[in-house]
Design goal:
262 residues; Rossmann fold; 44% helix; globular
């Protein structure tokens, strides 16, 4: 005799995302916007944050009633308190955090990188993850359980020439994720990191139009999967890790890179 899960047999949402409250940083475009849209399509309420206010409000408006946008400097602890308050006031306690915001300066050899530029990358890419995790934990505790997904990079798994600050910040996110997974497991909070490779977003498209993008396409052609990834392909992984479908996964580092790190 077959006994199935009644919700699955009725085609209902069974991944724990319906009614979830998610915060997604860097959500005005690229991977962040794709993630926010996908979470909302699965029934989650989403607070999108970014420094790009015009684009951020536009994405939130496209999503509809279950979305809010907050202008947000992710390296500022006070801004994080505001974001969590907006989420709680609008939708209730937070259950999901996606630390996606980041910057990637043009490649420079170590001896040409200024201290100010190095610190800026670390503040936006690394400090922000610490501030975000710290800010949402009390809210997730009130919720009862939750998930955090930190978006690192292939540069958080392997060295990249000319990217001393970016690589340092992304390796740090990888390590911070593992420590957080240990520290927060007893609070029923899972923490994982995602490591995108070359993804077709504004971050990797230099100024100069299609011709300027040719070298990136040529590099991608040498990968096992010979093309850039799409934002939705990364968002799929992020949303899976945030959902109850990944209930036994914590502290993991998941590359979505077309085989780059092989």
């Amino acid at each position: 005799m077959h006994v199935g899960h009644p919700d699955k047999e009725k085609g209902m949402n069974t991944d724990g995302l319906r009614g979830a409250v998610a915060i997604v940083t860097g959500a005005a475009g690229g991977i962040g916007a794709a993630t926010a849209r996908m979470l909302a399509s699965r029934g989650a309420n989403v607070v999108l944050t970014d420094v790009n206010q015009e684009q951020g409000f536009a994405v939130a408006a496209q999503i509809g009633e279950g979305a809010r946008f907050v202008a947000h400097d992710v390296s500022n602890g006070c801004d994080w308190k505001t974001v969590v308050s907006v989420a709680e006031d609008a939708f209730g306690s937070v259950s999901i955090l996606v630390n996606n915001a980041g910057i990637a300066p043009p490649p420079l050899p170590l001896h040409e990188v200024s201290e100010a530029d190095y610190r800026r990358v670390v503040d936006v890419n690394q400090l922000s993850c610490f501030l975000g995790m710290k800010a949402v934990v009390p809210s997730i505790i009130r919720r009862g359980s939750g998930a955090i997904v930190n978006v690192s990079s292939v540069a958080g798994l392997k060295a990249e020439r000319g990217a001393i600050a970016y690589t340092a910040s992304k390796f740090a996110v990888t390590g911070m994720t593992k420590v957080a997974a240990l520290d927060l497991a007893g609070l029923k909070i899972r923490v994982n990191s995602v490591h995108p490779g070359l993804v077709d977003t504004p971050m990797v498209r230099p100024e100069g139009g299609a011709q300027a993008f040719d070298p990136i396409l040529q590099f991608a052609a040498g990968l096992p999967i010979p093309r850039p990834g799409e934002p939705d392909e990364i968002a799929n992984l992020i949303v899976f890790l945030a959902s109850d479908s990944a209930s036994f996964l914590t502290g993991g580092s998941y590359a979505a890179d077309g085989g780059w790190t092989l």
